[in-house]
Every structure is written in structure tokens, then in C-alpha cells.
Amino acid sequence: MKVLVVDDEKIKRITLRDDLREANYETIAVESPTIALQLLQNEHFDVLVTDLRMPKMHGIEFLKRVKKAYPHITVIVMTAYASVETAVEAMKFGAYNYIKKPFASEELIRMLDQLKVLHNRENLHTQLTSRAAQRAPYHNIIGKSRAMLEIFDLLDKVSDSHSTVLIYGESGTGKALFAKSIHFNSSGSHLPFVALNCAELSAERLDRELCGHESGERKAAHQGTLFLDDVDLLPAELQAKLLRRLETQRGDWHRDTTATPAEVRVIAATTENLRAKVQNGAFRNDLFYRLNVVPIFLPPLRERKEDIPLLINHFLDLFSPNRLIRISTQAVDLLMEYPWPGNVRELENVVERLVTVGAGRDITVEDIPLELKLPTHVALKDTLSEISFQEIIRSTERELITWAMKKAGGNKTQAARLLKMKPSTFRDALAKHTDRIE
Q: How many whole angstroms separate alpha carbon 314 and alpha carbon 310?
């Protein structure tokens, strides 16, 4: 973000400029509203930080002129005369927030950090809205990574065909959501979408849902799309019946051999390597080839980390529709380091938990659950019988120090700050593990 600071106090102005630049904010500082208005005519700024008490033009008048000519600029006002009336007046004319003098630069930097997150969310919302206009049926699938863009392109091609689709992906990657997207983007979107989970239903129930046992009994999917989740767990006898359905596409497999072909499109999903199951005899070879006409491989979340900020903001909007909850950049960075074994579903659950427990507060690093902060995750129940308590502590300390040094690029002071340790304490801890840390 580009920041313009306006303050007639030279020392404070220069100090703020230098501190903001050190915090990686492109900053220009000037001494008067007149100069600032001239700058604004020729340069784009995201944030204006201005004093309220200045000679020649009062800050409120300056604020009104800026917001009228440049409504996109976020304005933070500084005042040594802060009161409810002053703050309300500034907010009335479009100020985002105010800060009371004297203040430390870190306080303004924290405010700008929060504002950056808000700007990022607004920009992402614009991007997603634009993508939704282009790919309206896929607007509930969030992603901008190369892997996801390739999948979007594949969905465009496959949705309006009648080809059978087999979706591969770890648990929590959203296989059912992708199946629904294919259906609702097809010419048969007005027809039923029926989902059956082969892991949850008994063989008898699956048989009844898929085929029916009596003449005239309604089938689960006579038209539209039939989605079979965890298809690798389909019992052997039902694999044969599913194969027959795919081969004949007739409405009643059991009795009415003269029935007209049903408009049923099958989409299956699995977390397993189905080809390997074929090789060991756990899945029919001929059914595999019937299902695997168009394979779609959904990447795990750890392989598309650039999508994590978009997903976080999507879930924040989902779970707090009536209030804009912000999440700090540091918290987002921390969540991007976690490997997410439960994929998007786990991330969704974590965000819902943060929103619920936080009761509407903005989210910071301190709010992130401890188990997501550790660089490695020790399965204690498997190790306690073999490793002493002291060994676990030493190992965890070493992992934390290694992680901090890597994140800080070898800067010990910055690494200590990441772990909220005194630099001297961190150096002592580092010295203990020097032979094990590169």
C-alpha cells in the first residue's frame, strides 16, 4: 500500500515516514494539505494519514475535499485533541479511524497492517466476483492457483458433455462440491442431482437406491446426475450392476429390458488409487475403465497454498455475514505454514471455530490454536513409551528454533521476535542446538 502522511510537525512527519518505509510501506510525507492535494492529482495513494490541527486548512476541511475528489482513499486522522466529538466528526466525513497523539509508530503500523488485510479481502472479493461472472457455476469453488485454474478449464470442457467423470482427491478436498458444479453447469442442470456415499450405506440400501427390487419402485437416479462418493467401497455385486447400467444406460436393469435409455450421468469419487485396487483384485477392471473416462485430480491444500488466503476470507464471510472480521497478515502467514492434512474441510472448521470463539473480534496470531502453530506435530501416544519427556522437549525446542531461523532468513533477532523470546535467551537456546541446525 502507498501511504501519504500530512503533518506540519517536521520531526514527527519525518519519523513516521522513515518508520513506515522500514515496515515496507511506500510512504511520502508532506507538511501541508495544499502540497498533499497537488500530489494527489498526479499520484495514486491508498492511505492518507493526516493531522487535524494544521495552519491554513483544518484537517476536517482537508478530509472533506480529499474524500470528495478521491473517494477510494482510506483516511486515518491524527489529533492531539482527541475527543468523542472530534472522532465522530472525522468519521462522519469519511475517515476510517483516528489515532491520538502522542503515539508510537508501531501503533500506526498495526493499524495499517489491519487495513492491508481489509484491502486484500476487498481486492480478492473483486477478483472472485469477476471470476464468478466468467464462471458463474463455479463461484463457490475458491482458487487462483495454477492447479485450480487448470481444473476450472477442465470443468468448462467436461460439464456439458455426458461423459462419466471420476474425481480423485484426499478427504476434505471438495469432491462433492466439484461433482455438483459439473451437474449444475450442464444442460441437465434442471434434472435431479442424487448423491450416494458408498462408505455410509449398507449393500442392501445401495442396491435398493441404485436398482430397486420391485417393478415400479423408484430408483435413486432415473434422470440427471448420480454421484457415487467413495466408489472404491462399492460391494463387488453392485460393481457388476453399476457396470451394466453404464453399458446399457437403461432405466430398469432388473425387469424391463425394453425401457428407454435414462438420461443418467454418473460421476464417481474416490480417495484411493483405483488403478492399484484393480491390480490387487479389489475393484473390477472393466468398471474402472467405464468410470475413468474423464479423470479429475484435486490437489491437496498443501500443494496450493496460495489459495489459503482466499479460502480464509471466503469462510470469514460465510461465518460472519453481518460483520467484517479481519485476520492479521501474521495469522494468515501462520495458517499457510500448516500442512492441512484435512484439506479445505479442516480449514473451514478452523475458521468457523475462530469466528465462534472470538465472538466477533478480529483474529490475531494469539487466536490460532496451538496445534497449528507448531512446525512439526508429534504423535505423543506413539512416542511416549520410547522417548523421555526431556527428549520430547529438546526435540520440540530444536524444531521451533529451526523453523524460526528459516522464517527469519537466519536473522537471530527476528527469529527471537517470532518466538516472542528475548534475543539473549534465543541465542542461548540456539547455541545448545548449533550442531543440529544448519
A: 6
> What is the structure's pLDDT at 258?
39
Task: In whole angstroms, give the CA distance from residue 272 to residue 401.
Answer: 37
Contacts of 14 (CB under 8 A, 6+ apart): 29
Which stretches of the chain score pLDDT less than 50?
128-137, 213-221, 250-262, 376-387, 436-438
Dihedral angle at the C-alpha atoms of 38, 44, 50, 56, nearest 10 degrees? 10
Nearest to 90 by CA among 61, 113, 69, 110: 61
What's the number of CA atoms in the CB half-sphere (13 Å) around residue 139? 14
Stated as kind and residue range, the H or E segment containing 93 is none
Domains and CATH numbers, the chain: 2-103 (3.40.50.2300), 112-144+302-373 (1.10.8.60), 146-298 (3.40.50.300), 380-432 (1.10.10)
Q: 335-361: per-residue pLDDT in tens?
A: 998 899 899 999 999 998 888 887 778
CA 223/CA 283 separation, integer angstroms: 26
